[in-house]
Design goal:
The complex is a heterodimer. Chain A is mainly alpha-helical. Chain A has 20 helices and two strands. Chain A has one domain. In chain A, strands 1-2 form a two-stranded antiparallel ribbon. The longest helix of chain A is centred in the C-terminal third of the chain and has 32 residues. The mean pLDDT of chain A is about 90. Chain B has a domain of about 220 residues. Chain B contains 22 helices and two strands. In chain B, about 60% of the residues are buried. Classes of the chains: A mainly alpha, B mainly alpha. Chains A and B meet through helix 16, helix 17, helix 18 and helix 20 of A and strand 1, helix 6, helix 7 and helix 8 of B.
C-alpha cells in the first residue's frame, strides 16, 4: 500500500486545527510554531505531490478510496489529475506564506491559526475530491472559518458588512450548486456520487443544458463571475491579510475548479451550449473589473478588483472548450493565485506600518520596504501580462483558445491588458515611489519572514514565466482528459 | 571552447542577466565595485560579439549560430535563436553601445545598484529581439525590455519623468496589443511560432478555419497593420512618435543613448525581420502609405527639431528625422522586392540603423556632458563654448557632421544608399525626403551655432573641459563613424548577403 499522501494533506491541517484549539490561549509562540510547522509540512507534501505526479501516465493519480455512506453511494474518494496538482501546490504555497506573514497576529492567535488550518483543509479537500458529495462537503466546510475570520480579525469598519455579504453570496451559490449536484446524482440513475463514474453517465442533451447553469453559477459565484462578483472585493478587503491571500489566492480557484470539475466535466454538452454566454460574461469581468480597479483610491480595493478581472480570464479559458484555452486557464489559476497572494501580503505589510490604505496618503515606501516593493512590482508585471512573468504564459494560450471560438472576445479582452498596465503602474508609483509622507517617515522594514514569503512567491512567478514547461505539460495532460469528455458528448 | 562556440548567442544574450542577478548580492555601498562589475559584464558580450563577427560567414545564406531548445512545448514555441547579417550588425551595435552607456553612467550617484541591474537586464531584452527566431520568443523579448527602460526613466529621469515614463510604457504596450493579437492568430492558424516555418507558410495561407467572419485577405491586411503599428510606434514613425521626445528628454543620459541607439532599431528591425517576409503582398499594397509616413517623419522630425530650444529635445526629434530614412528604404523594398534597387535601399536602411545608433548615442551623450556641467539644456543660454571647451566642441562638431550626413562620415553612406535605392522605386517620396535632408542641415547647424559659437555667456566661464572618461565613451563612436564613412565595406559585406536573401 502506498503512502496516503492526499489524505495526509487533507487531514493534517484538520488535526493541527484541533490541536491548536486545545492548547492554552496564552502559549502564543507555541501556537505560531505549530501552525508554521504544519504549513511547512503541507507545502512539502504538496511539492512532493506536484513533482511526483507522472505526466506521461496522466489521469487521476494518488487515488485512495474508502466507503463513507455506501447506502447513498457516497465514498471518501481522492485523487488528482494534471489540473488538480498545481492547485494543491498553490494551496500549499499560500498556506505557508499566509502563516509566515501572519506572525504578527496578536489577537487570539490560537483561533486565528486554527481556523486558517480548517480553511486550508477545505480547499485541499475540494482539489483532491473525486466524489461529488465529498467535494461539496469540503466546499461547505470553508464557510464557517471564512465568515468568522473576516468578522473577528477583519478591518473594523467593513468587516461585518464584508463578511456577511461574502458569506451570503457564497451560501446562495452553494445552495444552487447543491440543487444541480443532486440533479446530477438522481439524473444519472447510477446512485453514486463517484465523479469518474458520473463522467460516463451519458446524460441527455436536454438534461445537461438545463442543469449546467445551476452547477456552473453555483460554484462560479465563488470565482467572481460577472454579475455576481461584488462580494469578492468587499469580502477580500475586509478580511485580515492571510485570509485575503487564501480567499483571493485559493478560494476563488476552488470556485473555478469545482465549476470545471462538476459543470464542465460532468455536463460537457451543457458547457458547449452555454459557452458563448460565459465568454461574454467573463469578458465583462476582464474589462470592467480592470476599469473599476483603475479608479479605486484604496490600495486593497485595487487588488480586490484586479482579481475580478483576472478570474475572468480563467473563465474565458474554460469557455473556449479547447486545448489552448483550457491549458491557459489552468496556468492562470496558478499564476493568479500566487500573484494575488503576494499582492495581498504586501498590502498587509504596508497597512501594518502605515495604518492607512488610502493611495493619496501613501508614497515613497520603496526606500522603507524595498523587498516588499520589488515583490509587488513583480506581481504587478505578472498582472499586466508582461512576458517573462507567469501571467503572460497563462494569458497567451487563453487568447489563442479564444481566437478559435469567438475572435471578437480576444480583441475586446486584450484591452484589459492595457487598463491593467495603467492601474498597476499608477498604484506602484503612488505607493512605492514619489515623496514619502511625513507620517510615514519612521516606518520600519518588513520582517525576515515577510521577506522570505515575498521572495518565494516572486521567484515562482518569474520561474514559471521564464520556464512555462515547469507546469504546462502537466496541465496539458489534465486537459486531454477534459477534451476527451467534451469530444465524447 | 566548443561549448562557447556552440552557445555563443545564448552566452551573449544571458551574460548580462547573470551578471545582474549576481549583482543583487554585491553590497550597495561599494559603488566603485558595482560600476566596474557592470562595465566588465557588458564588455564580455561585446568581446563575444567580436568572436561571433570573426566567425560569421557572410557568404553563406540563412541563419548562423542557431540554437534550438525546448521552451513552451505545448504551444509549439521553442527557444530558437540565430543571426544573419542584419541581426548581427544590430547585435554588434547593442553590445558596443552598452558598455559605453554604462561608462557614461559613472556619473550616476544615486541608487547605483538598481540602476545598473536594470541596465544589464535591458541589454538582454534588446539582444533577444535581434536573435529570436521564434515569434513568441520575439514578442517576449520585445515587451520585456520595456520594463527596465520604464523604471530607468521613472526613477532616474528629469523633472517630468512620471508623465514621460507612463506615456512611454502605455504607448508602447498599447501599440503592441495588435502585435500580440496577430501573433496569437498566426500561432493558431499555422500551429507553430517558428519563424522559419512561418516565413514559408504564412504568406501562402489562403484558408483559415476560424470563425472570423472576414475574408482571409482582409484578416491578413488587418494583421499586417497590427504588426506595422506596433513597430511604427517603436521606430517611431509619424504620427506615432509623440512619446519619443518626452521619453528621450526625461531619460537619464545613458538611458537616452540606449533608447535612441538601440530601442528605436527594434522597431525598424521588426519591419525587416517580420513585416516584409510575413506579409510580402500586403507590404507591396501598402508600400505607398509606408513611404508617406516615412517622408512625413523625415520632414516633420526635421522641422520639429529646428523649432526646439531644448538641446536634448532637438536631438530627440532628430531621431525621428533620421529613422524616417530607414523606413523609406523599407518602403522601397516593400514595393519592389527582388530588384537590385530594393537591395540597395535595404542595405542603406540597415546601415542607417547602425549609423544612427552611433550618432544618436553620441549626440545624447554629448548633450548629457554639457548638461552635467551647466544644469540647463536651453540652447539660448549657451553660446561660445568652443572657447572654453575646444575638445568638447570638436567632438560635438564631428558627431553633428556625421549625423548631418557629411560625405566621408558614416551618415552620408547610408543615406546615400537609401536614396539611391529608393529613387527609381519611390521617386516622389525620395525627392521629398531629400528636401528633409536640407532641414536636417539647418537644425544641426542651428544647434552648433547656439552652443559653440557667438559670444561666451559669462555664466559658463568656469565650465570644465570634457573629462577623460567622457572622451573614452565618445571616442569609439567617433572612430566607427569615420571608419564606416571611409570604408563601409567591412560592415556592408555582412549586411548585404542577408539583404539579398530576404529582399
Amino acid at each position: 500500500m502506498q503512502f496516503p499522501i492526499l489524505s495526509v494533506l487533507i487531514f493534517l491541517p484538520i488535526l493541527a486545527g484541533i490541536v491548536l484549539l486545545l492548547l492554552p490561549a496564552g502559549r502564543k509562540n507555541l501556537i505560531k510554531w505549530i501552525a508554521l510547522v504544519t504549513a511547512s509540512l503541507i507545502l512539502l507534501l504538496s511539492v512532493i505531490v506536484y513533482f511526483s505526479y507522472d505526466i506521461a501516465a496522466g489521469g487521476y493519480q494518488f487515488i485512495e478510496r474508502a466507503n463513507w455512506v455506501p447506502a447513498l453511494g457516497i465514498s471518501y474518494y481522492v485523487g488528482i489529475d494534471g489540473i488538480g496538482a498545481p492547485m494543491v501546490l498553490l494551496a500549499g504555497l499560500v498556506m505557508f506564506t499566509g502563516v509566515m506573514v501572519s506572525w504578527g497576529v496578536d489577537d487570539r492567535p490560537r483561533e486565528f491559526f486554527s481556523f486558517m488550518m480548517f480553511l486550508g483543509a477545505s480547499v485541499l479537500g475540494v482539489f483532491c475530491a473525486l466524489d461529488l458529495f465529498m467535494l461539496f462537503f469540503f466546499f461547505e466546510l470553508a464557510v464557517f472559518p471564512k465568515y468568522l475570520m473576516i468578522v473577528l480579525w477583519g478591518s473594523p469598519k467593513t468587516r461585518n458588512y464584508g463578511g456577511m455579504k461574502l458569506t451570503l453570496y457564497l451560501f446562495i451559490g452553494s445552495m444552487i450548486a447543491l440543487v444541480g449536484a443532486l440533479a446530477i446524482y438522481f439524473g444519472s440513475g447510477l446512485r453514486t456520487f463517484d465523479m469518474i463514474a458520473l463522467e460516463g453517465a451519458g446524460f441527455s442533451t436536454a438534461f445537461q443544458r438545463l442543469w449546467f447553469p445551476f452547477v456552473f453559477l453555483g460554484f462560479g459565484i465563488l470565482s467572481g463571475i460577472f454579475p455576481f462578483y461584488s462580494w469578492a472585493p468587499d469580502g477580500h478587503v475586509a478580511a485580515p491579510t492571510a485570509i485575503s491571500m487564501l480567499l483571493a489566492g485559493v478560494e476563488m480557484k476552488v470556485g473555478a475548479f469545482a465549476a470545471l470539475r462538476v459543470a464542465f466535466m460532468l455536463l460537457p454538452e451543457g458547457a458547449r451550449y452555454w459557452s458563448t454566454a460565459i465568454l461574454i460574461l467573463a469578458t465583462i469581468n476582464v474589462v470592467y473589473g480592470a476599469f473599476i480597479a483603475l479608479i479605486q483610491t484604496d490600495f486593497k480595493y485595487v487588488i480586490g478588483f484586479s482579481s475580478v478581472s483576472h478570474m475572468g480570464l480563467v473563465l474565458i479559458g474554460f469557455a473556449t472548450l479547447n486545448r489552448e484555452g483550457l491549458i491557459g486557464a489552468g496556468m492562470q489559476m496558478f499564476s493568479h493565485g500566487v500573484m494575488t497572494a503576494l499582492f495581498f501580503s504586501v498590502v498587509g505589510m504596508v497597512y501594518d506600518r502605515a495604518h492607512t490604505r488610502e493611495l493619496s496618503e501613501l508614497g515613497g515606501l520603496f526606500r522603507k520596504l524595498p523587498i516588499a516593493a520589488v515583490g509587488f512590482i513583480v506581481g504587478g508585471l505578472v498582472s499586466m501580462g508582461m512576458p517573462g512573468f507567469s501571467g503572460f504564459v497563462a494569458e497567451f494560450p487563453i487568447f489563442m483558445g479564444v481566437w478559435q471560438v469567438l475572435p471578437v472576445v480576444a480583441v475586446i479582452a486584450i484591452l484589459g491588458v492595457l487598463i491593467t498596465a495603467a492601474y498597476i503602474l499608477l498604484v506602484v508609483r503612488r505607493v512605492f515611489f514619489g515623496e514619502l509622507p511625513e507620517a510615514l517617515a519612521n516606518v520600519g522594514d518588513v520582517t525576515l519572514k515577510d521577506k522570505i514569503s515575498t521572495i518565494l512567491l516572486a521567484v515562482i512567478m518569474i520561474a514559471l514565466g521564464v520556464f512555462p514547461s515547469l507546469m504546462a505539460p502537466m496541465i496539458s495532460s489534465g486537459v486531454d482528459h477534459i477534451l476527451a469528455l467534451l469530444g465524447g458528448a | 571552447m566548443n561549448f562557447i562556440f556552440d552557445h555563443l548567442l545564448t552566452l551573449i544574450l544571458f551574460v548580462p542577466t547573470a551578471a545582474a542577478i549576481l549583482m543583487l548580492f554585491l553590497p550597495r555601498e561599494r559603488v566603485g565595485l558595482l560600476r566596474w562589475w557592470a562595465l566588465i559584464a557588458s564588455l564580455i558580450p561585446f568581446g563575444l560579439t567580436l568572436v561571433l563577427w570573426a566567425n560569421f560567414a557572410p557568404e553563406s545564406t540563412g541563419f548562423q549560430f542557431t540554437e534550438q531548445a525546448a521552451w513552451y512545448g505545448v504551444l509549439n514555441a521553442s527557444y530558437h535563436v540565430g543571426v544573419d547579417g542584419i541581426s548581427l550588425s544590430m547585435v554588434l551595435l547593442t553590445t558596443l553601445l552598452m558598455p559605453l552607456a554604462i561608462l557614461a553612467s559613472f556619473s550616476i550617484k544615486e541608487r547605483v545598484k538598481p540602476y545598473l541591474i536594470l541596465f544589464l537586464l535591458l541589454e538582454t531584452g534588446m539582444l533577444g529581439v535581434f536573435m529570436a527566431l521564434d515569434l513568441l520568443l520575439f514578442f517576449v523579448f520585445w515587451e520585456v525590455g520595456l520594463v527596465p527602460m520604464y523604471f530607468l526613466i521613472a526613477q532616474w529621469g528629469g523633472s517630468n519623468r512620471n508623465y514621460a515614463s507612463l506615456k512611454f510604457m502605455l504607448y508602447t504596450i498599447g501599440g503592441s496589443l495588435g502585435l500580440l493579437l496577430a501573433t496569437q492568430l498566426i500561432g493558431v492558424v499555422v500551429g507553430t511560432f517558428d519563424m522559419t516555418v512561418l516565413f514559408a507558410q504564412w504568406p501562402n495561407i489562403t484558408e483559415m478555419s476560424l470563425p472570423l467572419g472576414l475574408s482571409v485577405p482582409m484578416v491578413k491586411a488587418i494583421a499586417f497593420w497590427a504588426f506595422v503599428v506596433a513597430f511604427a510606434v517603436k521606430v517611431p514613425v509619424w504620427p506615432f512618435h509623440t512619446w519619443l521626445p518626452d521619453a528621450h528628454t526625461e531619460a537619464p543620459t545613458a538611458g537616452s543613448m540606449i533608447l535612441a541607439g538601440v530601442l528605436l532599431k527594434l522597431g525598424a528591425y521588426g519591419f525587416l525581420r517580420l513585416v516584409l517576409p510575413l506579409y510580402p503582398a500586403e507590404a507591396r499594397t501598402y508600400s505607398g502609405a509606408l513611404a508617406f509616413l516615412a517622408v512625413a517623419a523625415i520632414i516633420a522630425g526635421a522641422l520639429a527639431a529646428w523649432g526646439q530650444t531644448d538641446f536634448k529635445r532637438l536631438v530627440a526629434y532628430s531621431s525621428i528625422n533620421h529613422m524616417g530614412f530607414v523606413v523609406l528604404g523599407i518602403a522601397a523594398a516593400a514595393r519592389a522586392s527582388g530588384t537590385a534597387d530594393a537591395v540597395i535601399a535595404v542595405n542603406g536602411s540597415v546601415l542607417q540603423m547602425f549609423n544612427h545608433g552611433l550618432s544618436a548615442a553620441g549626440m545624447f551623450f554629448l548633450v548629457g556632458v554639457i548638461y552635467d556641467r551647466a544644469h540647463t539644456r536651453d540652447l539660448n543660454e549657451f553660446g561660445g563654448l568652443w572657447a572654453r571647451m575646444p575638445v568638447y566642441g570638436s567632438l560635438l562638431l564631428f558627431t553633428s557632421m556625421a549625423s548631418l550626413g557629411l560625405p566621408g562620415l558614416n551618415g552620408f553612406v547610408s543615406e546615400f544608399l537609401v536614396i539611391r535605392g529608393s529613387w527609381p522605386i519611390l521617386t516622389l517620396a525620395t525627392a521629398l525626403g531629400m528636401i528633409g535632408l536640407f532641414f536636417t542641415g539647418a537644425y544641426i547647424l542651428k544647434a552648433l551655432k547656439l552652443v559653440l559659437h557667438g559670444p561666451l555667456n559669462e555664466r559658463w566661464a568656469k565650465l570644465s573641459e570634457i573629462s577623460t572618461r567622457e572622451i573614452l565613451v565618445i571616442a569609439p563612436l567617433a572612430a566607427l563613424m569615420l571608419a564606416i564613412g571611409v570604408w563601409p565595406a567591412w560592415i556592408l559585406n555582412v549586411i548585404n548577403r542577408a539583404v539579398q536573401m530576404w529582399f
